[in-house]
Amino acid sequence: MGSHADGDGCTAPDEYLMRAGYALGGDDGCIADARHHAVTFLDQARTGHHLPVSERARDLTQLVVSELVTNARKYAPGPVLMELRITAVSVDIVVWDSEPTVPAARAADPDRIGQHGLEIVKAVTEALFTEQEPVGKRITARIALSDTPSSDTAAR
Fold first, then answer.
1. 33-85 per-position pLDDT tens digit
2. Could you tell me which CATH number the domain at 18-154 has?
3. How far apart are CA 49 and CA 107, in angstroms?
4. Would you say 51 and 145 are in contact if contact means Cβ atoms under 8 Å apart?
5. Helices 117-124 and 55-75: crossing angle, nearest 10°?
6. How far is the C-alpha of 107 from the C-alpha of 86, rounded, in Å?
7. For residue 147, how many C-alpha atoms fall within 13 Å in the half-sphere facing its CB?
8. CB within 8 A of 139, min separation 6: which ones?
9. Where do the domains of the chain lie?
10. What integer pLDDT is reported at residue 89 of this predicted model?
């Protein structure tokens, strides 16, 4: 099945079947570019690896990519990097930026306008991790490929 881990003896069930990295420019078109990369990546996973990528997974991946890249552009100077990784059951969206401050979802406030991005991402993902790096931070969001989210997501 030609993964990037060929030859290393790694046969874990969560082995990445495909990975792709993208450097996103600082212009206004980079969010649309990131969404396009995500759809193309998922289409390749569906056709090349016969993975069951649901429409829900495609829509949520585009939403999460938009929110994470928007936040990176808004709060961090310099480049934004995005990596997409896929297993047989989920897709990971990894966004790196140069701002070391770890974002926090704010308490629900129906009167607040805007700044709901991280709340939305937390609500639609299976898992959300933030790691501080020597320079900046890396945020990883995991989305299930199937239409039936795990009980963890359904319980939120």
1. 999 999 999 999 999 999 999 999 999 999 999 999 999 998 888 889 999 99
2. 3.30.565.10
3. 40
4. yes
5. 150
6. 31
7. 2
8. 68, 94, 95, 96, 103, 128, 129, 130, 131
9. 18-154
10. 94
Residues 136-156 pLDDT 10s: 999 999 999 988 755 444 444
Whole-number Å distance between alpha carbons of 145 and 13: 15
**Which residue type is seen at 59?**
D
Q: Which residues 6+ apart lie within 8 Å of 153 measured at CB?
A: 124, 125, 126, 144
Q: Which two tokens stand for residue 12?
A: 């874990």
Tell the residue number behind the tokens 């928007």, with chain if given: 70
In whole angstroms, what is the distance from residue 106 CA to residue 108 CA? Answer: 6
Identify whether the C-beta of residue 69 lies closer than 8 Å to the C-beta of residue 81. Answer: no
What are 138-142's contacts with CB under 8 Å, separation 24+? 138/94, 138/95, 138/96, 139/68, 139/94, 139/95, 139/96, 139/103, 140/92, 140/93, 140/94, 141/64, 141/68, 141/92, 141/93, 142/90, 142/91, 142/92, 142/93
